Amino acid sequence: MSYKNFPMVPRVVFGRGSFNQLSDIIAPKRINTKAPFIFFIDDVFKGRASLTSRIPLSYHDRVIYISADEEPKTSQVDALVEEIILTTNARPSGIIGIGGGTILDLAKAVSIMLTNEGDTSDYQGWDLVKNPALYHVGVPTISGTGAEVSRTTVLTGPEKKLGINSDYTTFDQVILDPELTKDVPKEQWFYTGMDCYIHCIESLNGTYLNAFSQSYGEKSYDLCKEIFVNGALTPEESQDKLMMASWHGGMSIAYSQVGVAHAMSYGLSYVLGTKHGIGNCIVFNHLEEYYPQGVRLFKEMMKRHDINLPENICAHLEDYHFDTMINMALSLEPLWENAIGKHWKKTITHDKLKALYQKM
Ligand code: NAD
Ligand code: ZN
């Protein structure tokens, strides 16, 4: 048995207003004045001076605004890489992603593809990346996915939705400034926050659980309860704590795995384009059978925050849609093995998943 040797984010700043230190933090990483920093910024911030006026641009640095309406695709990464190569005179000094999981994942993927040949989809899988990525920095503006700590970047490709899981994917630097999350709309706050809660439930109830994952998972779970159940926190405390819950939730799954909700939500996303946070909620809401306590508390949180999930999203689907969705979900074997155990194939059948999807 050999244990995995995982990279962690080597440098992290935490604190309200710490975003102001971005300039000082990246300055020593500038290769020369020709090699720009490229900032990927969620286009929700376009025209919001409170953030954009604090982006430290010098020499040939550039901002690229990116919409988070759709989750990242391998073709989008290829196009961004191409554009950067064509429009900059030198290999960039680094990529700085400012946004939610969507923008963070794009920053990770582009920083890898600027130093590795071929198409992005060639690298979807485990440990396929050959060369170290460009210096890349993550600045989350919404909390929950754990994308800021993870060693993966989740991408939808021509054949599958699968991450580039590699030691080079992890950010070189993360800036955790909870103040940046203050304007997230309530529904989105809940959905992305529940991604974190579901990471904890799936990790803590999985067969891969170990003391490493448990220690992070329990901390994250407790923080989620403080934030979403107890309701005694100020907005600032809640923002601070959710940012740390996300971090710990991400660390928890690093050494274990996610489970049923993630496997099935990947299927939904692949066929219907359902986004990760809301997709996980739609699925998790129907998983009492697998996570009875977790789902009970989830329903309580939905009630408390007055969240109404979309229903019947699979009602109009044809058999071939269900087949694609189910095959996508079933292909994520480690998730099922973690959730159910080695013999998961005995109970997790095509028909079982179809019956579950039909409820959604
Ligand atoms: P997101 O990045 O898709 O953003 C969701 C919405 O919130 C968008 O409309 C965005 O514009 C908005 N938003 C973000 N910050 C805001 C702010 N401060 N104020 C107002 N609006 C704001 O959301 P997400 O849930 O963080 O990320 C989902 C993505 O993360 C998916 O693509 C998923 O695959 C990925 N993911 C990655 C990992 C990983 O380990 N790499 C883990 C989980 C999820
Ligand atoms: Zn997730």
Question: Would you mind describing this structure in some detail?
Answer:
- With 360 residues, the protein is an alpha/beta fold.
- It is built from 13 helices and nine strands.
- The chain has helices at residues 22-26, 49-52, 74-87, 101-113, 186-204, 211-230, 235-254, 260-272, 276-284, 292-304, 319-330, 333-340, 350-359, and strands at 11-14, 37-42, 62-66, 94-99, 125-126, 136-140, 154-156, 161-165, 173-176.
- The chain has a six-stranded parallel β-sheet, covered by helices on one side. Strands 5-8-7 form a three-stranded mixed β-sheet.
- β7 (154-156) and β8 form a beta hairpin.
- α3 (74-87) crosses α4, α6 packs antiparallel against α7 and α11 packs across α13.
- The N and C termini lie far apart (40 Å).
- The model has no long low-confidence stretch (mean pLDDT 97).
- Bound molecules: nicotinamide-adenine-dinucleotide and zinc ion.
- Nicotinamide-adenine-dinucleotide (NAD) is lined by residues 42, 44, 68, 71-72, 99-103, 105, 141-142, 144-147, 150, 152-154, 180-181, 183-184, 188, 192, 195, 275-277.
